[in-house]
Write a structure and sequence with these properties.
Number of strands: 3
Strand order of the largest sheet: 2-1-3
Helix content: 25-40%
Amino acid sequence: MPVTGPHYPLEEIARRGNDIYFNEIRPKLKGRHKGKFISIDIETGEYEIDRNSGAATHRLRARLPDAEILVRKIGYRAAGRMGGSMHPEER
């Protein structure tokens, strides 16, 4: 299956995905999920959680091949880091 790239600008994917995460998903999550990855389809709100970001994304894409996906690390501001340390969410 060819990959066509995002249908939305990256800023829109981030905005919509974060809105879904903070308003709909995060209130339902338990403490045991902290540090795991969540892949969210910004169009449907469907998501998958896994310790491995690729596994979560793969399962979501298997269910929704055309998903527009945002990946987050649960409990942190970013999905990964480049030097420095991970900062907890502030919202």
